[in-house]
Amino acid sequence: MEKIKVIHDVVGHTLTIWLEDPNKEVTCEETTEEVVLIKNREGAVIGFELLHYEPPGSQPSGLTVETIVTSGA
């Protein structure tokens, strides 16, 4: 697996996660959960974007979120 690329746009309030090369993007599809699926020519998801994203700690909340990223090796 290639490196995962994470982009936080603080102005646009989005978080974009690229699982493959962003240059392979051909189309996008918005889901009902305000997530945009980014797809390549074959229709495979190569990334996704979370809309209206606020990083943890930016708003008071009782919810704690932990993220674990592992490699396929």
Protein described:
It contains no helices and five strands. It is mostly beta strands. The protein has one domain (1-73). Strands 1-2-5-4-3 form a five-stranded antiparallel beta sheet, with no helix packed on it.
Secondary structure blueprint with pairings:
Layout: E1 5-9, E2 14-18, E3 27-30, E4 35-39, E5 45-51
Antiparallel strand pairs: 1-2, 2-5, 3-4, 4-5
What descriptors fit this protein?
36% strand, five-stranded antiparallel β-sheet, mainly beta, 73 residues, 5 strands
- What string gives the helices and strands in order? EEEEE
What structural category characterises the helix and strand content?
A: mainly beta
Number of strands: 5
- What integer value in Å does the Rg equal? 14 Å
Secondary structure tally, helices: 0
Tally of domains: 1
Strand percentage: 35-45%
- Give me the side-by-side strand order of the main sheet: 1-2-5-4-3
The proportion of residues forming helix, as a percent range, comes to: under 10%
Q: What distance lies between the first and last C-alpha atoms, to the nearest angstrom?
A: 9 Å
Report a brief summary of the structure:
The chain has no helices and 5 strands.
